[in-house]
Amino acid sequence: MLNIVEKFITISGEAPIIGSPVYLIRFSGCNLDCKYCDTKYHDEVNFSLTDDELMDDINNVIKSNPFLKVLLTGGEPFSEERQDKILNIIKKLKKVNFYIETNGSIKIKNFELRNIFYIIDWKAPSSNNEIFFIDNLKFMRKTNDCIKFVVAEEDLCWLLEKVNFLTNNFNEIPLFVSAQYGKINLENLSNFIIKNKLPLKLSIQLHKLIWPNRDRGV
Ligand code: SF4
Predict the structure, then answer these.
(1) What does the pLDDT look like over 190-217, one tens digit per residue?
(2) Which residue minimizes the CA distance to atom 6 of ligand 1?
(3) The pTM is what?
(4) H or E stretch including 92?
(5) CATH 3.60.10.10 for the 2-210 domain, yes or no
(6) Would you list the domain boundaries of the chain?
(7) Smallest Cα–Cα separation from 14: which of 218, 203, 211?
(8) What is the pLDDT, as a whole number, of residue 212?
(9) CA 160 to ligand 1 center in whole angstroms
(10) Going along 33-145, which residue ranges are E strands?
């Protein structure tokens, strides 16, 4: 079964599809325990669906609104036990675009599908989970995939090192950075990007601006 915390239509709050209407599906459970995690409820199971039931659910939502993208998040959507099941659904729903937010610690098995877009977190030291499956980098595509950093002030030297590594070795992968809430000033982060001439796109958590008093269901 595929265990899900919540599923709803919203506006994506984060890069690279910030501002886009999405059908967000939050899978239950995560192999990490980040210090700043804002979905501490990710272990809840509110829907338990078979692969076919989830595929029908997505199909029905997309039929009623063909412009929606599907955002699979968590928790960790691509945990080893469910990655194959999700990939099978994506293979069958060829006309639907799937965005997968994954935490970077997991080996991704399939970079070939054109309707799949990976948003891979590279966890900074302040997360207390600096685990990154580096071989994924070899397969990432400039058209479909990106790396996302979420940083605090204390991560800036680390960030500079990682961005330099990526630009020297994998310079086509799009890179995004966002600020950990309350842990770095956006002006400081912007000045850091400009001063160091980094190819980073700054992202904000748009959903927190739109719905400042809601911490779930958005
Ligand atoms: S990887 Fe994401 S869901 Fe998992 S603990 Fe870290 S922030 Fe939370």
Answers:
(1) 999 999 999 999 998 888 888 888 888 8
(2) 34
(3) 0.96
(4) helix 80-92
(5) no
(6) 2-210
(7) 203
(8) 87
(9) 23
(10) 47-49, 69-73, 98-102, 116-121
